[in-house]
Design brief:
mainly alpha
Length: 902
């Protein structure tokens, strides 16, 4: 990938600020626009963009770069405003009048717009001259200044007079940073890569540019399947290190020591620091924006102001100095008795960082605490260090869990098998049961060895039963193992069996209650009780994220996956997608990529089921790229199946076959997800024109699932067979669907009835039923069929209304094929971008709102609209909706989905 990819960085996220500057330049009462912000926030870039716009509008412009070097010679910084042949070394008084006359001549009746970079470094004479020019109305100044530097007196005076518009620039908000990445890299960026870049850059455009440039040149950030994926850690050396060195280079020895300590040990309390550091040092660093003080309950915590500073300082600290700083902090913490709960973790990590070792009991205790916050990298580090010193079952279990959560399944399997072997005949103890539970998870979810996982749990149950434990001990450990077995059964496509195996009461161990709750949720979801599934899953999620909650064997984000799918079945698609996206983002932020991949699959699945083909395809492509790079073959398999269906839905048979072949080359996911393969095969047959074969595949698989009480999946497959016109499937679905009492189930019932009766009223009722659940493709398909029947029945007016409604739903997913629904002649001529913009405007969005959403200028939007009007032969936006085939688009149709936020 060439460096040209990262050379063009558009101005993103500053539209409102730019408009304020443009308005100010047209207002004679505003003499100075004062842009203030930290280094790297884009002050100079914004000023340059403003001057470019001013020049296009006919204003004369000039650029002035103030600096310490230029300030040595008065007026040298203002060279761009000096008359030809004038030397800054001349007597300033002799130069003054000639400069005023020269600037007046440059302006020719208009104000000259002058960009002054770093106005705080302007020499006094230049500042005074500039002030005279703006007071005389000869110039309008756009000045930049770094936060924490002294504002020139002339600027303060003008501000008191009301002639200054001050704009404080912060870092970019996350959506703007995401848009910027997309524009720079000219393609989608994976959620994991986006999070990593945000986590380090925190929206600082300069830091973001350096990170992306470095990562692309090092091939750590590269396109995979058309999606930019990050492989490895971001590099904060090189250009970034130089920027940080410049930022903190002025610090004295005491300030430097304190900043380096924070880089190693933050957050630290103000009281902790005040006990050994001067308060004036802290105050100076806070005033200079080097550190940040925030409230945490009754404590005030101190951190460095930016994550980049932390990483650069850690990487540049000499080893022995870092050791001294860490051990000094350990001694101070231990001298106060390590009173806080997290002190054990902090001391364990600090000792390990300083010396490479620590007391093994301290390391294990620290790993347990790190696990509570799902910091699995730290768990691995501490547990591995403890095991180097002595064997320990708890440390082995922690290490196995940490490896699993990072997607390193073979290592986890080896670690846990060795730990179990080390226990010998003691296979019924609490430690042995915990190892067996974790090993079952690794075997089933990580390695896809479902029977081996169930056998592992069965062996542990047998050991407990024959160990001569007290009744209470045996009952508790059996309940724990049976809860895990039930969860695995749900994922093995044996949900009814799971419900029978699930203990009536959850285990008393709070760690295992989460497993019981998740097994309960999955089993009820798959057997058609979505309401119970959603309630159970959300309760488990809430319990799992409480601060005082011990960490379970399964990351709590997984509860949001089943909650999202249950909400989808309940006809709450927006809530479903939000829950899945929330779980994905939490898992990414906490460094749990395997769980994040599953939640990403849920996000894509919600979009696909609803019929938003473009959004679904983008999400599945990202998942295929990241899961493939992460080694999550089962999830990559499901992503490839999803892409098979997406390509078939848009009429691309060759693309559908290519993705299905990729899926077939990968290990299959758990048996509960086998219906995804059936669905992909059916859509593949449909893309090849064999809808009879498609319906037969779905019908047969649906009946088999119904016989096993996998009612939700049975209903899905039978409903798809109904979509392909299978009347027998409709009859079978009407039998099954009464046991799936959800809004989506009712819509499926209406579709089955409509196929059997053929009545347009039934077809339209089914369309409305699916539309009410947010399933736009199904709604469009049923309305289009109703239009065909009405037209054949000789009712063209009703047919036109039905077709227009179908088109309104189909328009929400550009490119998707809806049988019997053609496009309007004019609309067919539109480019994808014109279609996107005109659809948004037809729904009542203003040009400014569309420009903000799509990160374009208002002028660009209006130019596209002018082309649209010409192609459609209409006079303006009031006629857009009918010309595009939309009916009551502003009120009856949900907002467009394409390009929405993650």
């Amino acid at each position: 990938m060439g460096t040209t990819t990262v050379l063009t960085w558009p101005l993103v996220g500053r539209t409102a600020d730019l408009e304020r500057i443009v308005s100010a330049l047209a207002d004679d009462s505003v003499r100075v626009v004062h842009l203030v912000g930290d280094a790297g926030t884009g002050k100079s870039r914004l000023a340059e963009e403003a001057l470019r716009g001013a020049e296009l509008d006919g204003y004369p412009v000039a650029h002035v770069a103030a600096s310490e070097a230029a300030a040595v010679v008065p007026l040298s910084a203002l060279s761009p405003l000096l008359p030809s042949g004038t030397s800054p070394a001349l007597d300033p008084g002799a130069v003054l009048d000639s400069v005023v006359d020269h600037v007046r001549e440059l302006g020719d009746g208009a104000r000259v717009v002058v960009h002054v970079d770093d106005i705080d470094q302007l020499d006094v004479v230049s500042a005074d001259l500039l002030a005279r020019l703006w007071r005389d109305g000869l110039v309008a100044v756009v000045a930049t200044q770094r936060t924490g530097t002294a504002t020139p007196g002339v600027l303060m005076t003008e501000q008191r007079r009301g002639g200054v518009l001050r704009i404080d620039l912060g870092d970019l908000p996350r959506p703007s940073a995401s848009s910027l990445l997309h524009h720079v890299l000219r393609g989608p960026v994976s959620a994991g890569a986006e999070h990593a870049l945000w986590d380090v850059a925190q929206g600082n455009p300069l830091y973001l540019r350096e990170l992306v440039t470095s990562a692309v040149l090092a091939d750590r950030l590269a396109p995979v399947d058309g999606v930019w994926v990050l492989d490895g850690a971001l590099d904060v050396s090189g250009g970034l290190a130089g920027l940080v060195a410049e930022r903190i280079g002025h610090l004295d020895a005491d300030e430097r020591d304190l900043v380096e300590l924070l880089a190693l040990c933050a957050p630290l309390g103000v009281d902790e620091l005040a006990a050994h550091a001067r308060l004036d040092v802290l105050e100076s660093l806070e005033a200079g924006g080097v550190i940040r003080v925030s409230a945490d309950r009754r404590r005030q915590l101190v951190t460095l102001a930016h994550p980049v500073h932390v990483q650069v300082l850690r990487g540049s600290l000499p080893r022995l100095k870092a050791r001294r700083l860490l051990l000094d902090q350990v001694a101070r913490t231990e001298a106060h008795g390590s009173r806080r709960r997290d002190d054990v973790l902090r001391v364990a990590a600090w000792r390990l960082d300083a010396t490479g070792t620590a007391d093994p009991r301290l390391l294990v205790a620290g790993a347990e605490l790190a696990r509570t916050s799902h910091d699995y990298l730290q768990v691995e580090r501490l547990a591995r260090a403890a095991l180097l010193l002595e064997p320990d079952a708890v440390a082995s279990t922690l290490l196995g869990e940490a490896l699993y959560e990072q997607g390193r399944f073979d290592e986890a399997d080896e670690t846990l098998a060795s730990a179990a072997a080390a226990l010998g005949d003691d296979q019924a103890s609490g430690d042995a049961v915990r190892i067996a539970l974790m090993h079952g998870i690794v075997l089933f979810f990580g390695l896809g060895r479902s029977e081996a996982a169930l056998d592992r749990l069965g062996a542990a149950s047998s050991a407990v039963a024959g160990a001569g434990l007290t009744d209470d001990e045996a009952a508790e450990r059996t309940a724990v193992l049976e809860s895990m077995r039930a969860l695995l059964l749900t994922q093995g496509g044996r949900s009814r069996e799971a419900l029978d195996a699930l203990p009536a009461e959850p285990p008393s161990d709070p760690v295992m209650r989460a497993v019981h709750a998740r097994a309960h949720a999955w089993a009820h979801y798959r057997t058609g009780e979505a309401e119970a599934a959603a309630e159970s899953a959300l309760a488990a999620w809430e319990a799992g994220i409480r601060e005082d909650a011990p960490a379970g064997l399964l990351h709590p984000a997984g509860d949001l996956m089943v909650a999202a799918l249950a909400h989808l079945e309940l006809g709450r698609p927006e809530e479903a997608r939000a829950l899945a996206a929330k779980g994905r983002d939490v898992a990414i932020a906490q460094g749990v990529p395997f769980q994040a991949a599953w939640l990403a699959w849920a996000v894509a699945t919600v979009d696909l089921v609803m019929g938003y083909a473009e959004d679904a395809e983008a999400a599945f492509r990202e998942l295929a790229a990241t899961a493939g790079r992460g080694g999550f073959a089962q999830v990559e398999h499901l992503a490839a199946l999803g892409l098979t269906e997406c390509r078939a839905l848009t009429g691309d048979a060759a693309g559908a076959h290519a993705w299905f072949d990729r899926a077939e080359a990968l290990p299959a996911a758990a048996p509960a997800f086998a219906p995804a393969t059936v669905m992909a095969r059916a859509w593949l047959a449909s893309a090849d024109g064999d809808t009879r074969q498609a319906a037969a595949l779905l019908h047969d698989a649906g009946l088999e699932l119904a016989a096993r009480d996998e009612l939700r999946e049975a209903a899905v497959l039978l409903d798809e067979a109904v979509m392909f016109g299978d009347r027998d499937a409709a009859e079978a679905l009407l039998v099954v669907i009464d046991r799936v009492p959800t809004p989506v189930g009712r819509a499926r019932r209406l579709r089955a009835q409509a196929l059997l009766t053929g009545a347009p009223s039934d077809l339209l009722a089914a369309a409305e039923g699916f539309a009410g659940c947010g399933f736009v493709h199904s709604a469009a398909t049923m309305a289009a069929r109703a239009a065909q029947v009405l037209r054949a029945d000789g009712d063209p007016r009703a047919a036109a209304a039905a077709e227009a409604q179908a088109r309104a739903w189909a328009d929400l997913s550009p490119g998707i094929q809806v049988e019997g629904l053609g496009s309007t002649a004019g609309a067919a001529l539109l480019t994808p971008r014109e279609r996107e913009i005109s659809s948004l405007v037809a729904r009542g969005r203003s040009s400014k709102e569309v420009a903000t959403d799509l990160v374009l200028s208002v002028r660009t939007i209006d130019n596209h609209l002018a082309n649209v009007y010409a192609k459609l032969g209409i006079a303006g936006r009031a006629q857009l909706a009918p010309a595009l085939g939309l009916v009551d688009a502003a009120t009856a149709v949900p907002a467009a989905r394409s390009g929405r936020d993650r």
